[in-house]
Amino acid sequence: MKSYFENMTPFGKALKKGTIKRTQNNYEQVLGLEKQILAAVDDVKNAGISEEKINQRGQMTVWQRLEYIVDPGTWTPLHTLFNPADNVEGTTNVIDGLGKIAGKWAVVIGFDNKVMAGAWLAGQSENILRVTDLAKILNIPLVWLVNCSGAKLTEQEKFYANRRGSGTPFFRHAELEQDGIPVLAAIYGTNPAGGGYHAISPTVLFAHEKCNMAVGGAGIVSGMSPQGGFTADMAEALVQKAKEHREKPPGSVAIHYDHTGFFRFVYKEEKEVLDGVREYMKKLPAYDPEFFRVTDPRSPAFEAEEVMRLLPIASKTVYDFDDILARLVDGSEHMEYRPDYGPEVYTGLCKVDGFLVACIGNRQGYLGKGYPEYADYPGMGAKLYRQGLLKMNEFVTLCGRDRIPVIWFQDTSGIDVGDIAEKAELLGLGQSLVYSIQQSGLPMMLVILRKGTAAAHYVMGGPQANRNNAFTLGTCATEICVMHGETAAVATYARRLVKEKEAGRDLEPVVEKMNALARKYKETSTPLYCAKHGMVDEVVRLADLRHYMQSFAGAVYQNPRSICPQHQMILPRIIRDHAVEKEKE
Hints:
By secondary structure, this protein is α/β, with parallel strands linked by helices. Strands 1, 11, 12, 13, 15, 17, 18, 19 and 20 form a 9-stranded mixed beta sheet that branches. Strands 2-3-4-5-6-8-10 form a 7-stranded mixed beta sheet, sandwiched between helices.
């Protein structure tokens, strides 16, 4: 045997005709829900003035620039629907994701020049912080398509200042560069004030001949001497000054190429700027993918689109997680870690494009008589118990030792509760899993298949692990909330019901409030709500989950900060030795 990983165990069942017929309704539900999500994405893409008008000005839109610079078939969008301040523009005005440029993975982000010429909007700084964090976690270049007209001045209080405000990304750029992660910028259009810092803070600046960057733009320079108000005579003078500065705005190529030398390269055509970035990407360090591959890439033995039939939209309907995973990983093969322990969670090694990844996910359904072992009630999948928490702790720790990136799949209703569960130390074991994740130093991604509930959402690789969690994906079935809405209503109003009953008053007003709270929980846990408010980084089609896994694995193994030689890994040995012992039994 050449390696531990070339002959993994096959898993997953083929769908029979009867199953396909039985799941047709679920398939159609998925198509309908995903259509709604795609419509919301189209709204973002169509925000602002038309592509035709931008092109008439001799410019490309941000979408055209992305299409030109990113290698075909590798674009992996993130944060498309992120808009936590509910901007009227329908966007934070930056578009970002993972993609290959000249065969190398990068985090790519650009200002949407169709919307207020790429101005700062509320929520944009938080979006950018997620992007810079992603580049840091994956240790890959950050590529900027800069075209930022400055700030939406009528709403400056929403984004200008604060600890995570619009100045923070410039410090994050410096942090990336100090870590040896290059930031490359293609610069277009007028970039004053904050736009100037987005332009100047990257490592290498590639400029279009008609671009400029400056501490202040024409409008700011024209009004730099406040006098306590405005008069008609002052307005006439401002008109003349504004015309002068519009004709010759500060910070042009003549300044920053010929005098300051800030612009490394200047190009006549827009596409030439992107070609310049592409040439520099070729010069950046990256391992040949074969260095880290454990086997040749293989497609799953089953079609990825079958996940649309296998994952029930109804949150309480049971399904087989193993069958889902079999549609996503190479050859539909795996090496499961401790399959006879902690049955509520799957832990195992899989391959994605020939790269070794660890997968962890919630299993569903009845867990069998006598489990959990510490209680006299039956255990049900989706909930976490003592053994499952212990198993995940061990698995994550071993993955950290062996430098294996982790992909989490959440569909959890929470951690077991009550005095019996407290005696079983579940509170401490949950926090110990957080500690295990934090100390691992591993890049991780998370897919919330359906439910992300209570503390289980945190401890199973949630986005709160912002040193590890590269990005979190939602699906058309995702719902994220601290507990089920009806449970929250009971927790909130149970005592009030007792008081009203004892006082002999009508319970109906309280019941109305309980129903209203349950409805609110439902409305604020939908996939679109979660994407808009950043609970997930993107809502993706179920058939596209493997594409995101491929992008993640490829980016992780492009230039890792640390390596464990394959023949020195402990985790596959433990799995193999356990299997041998089981065979002897």
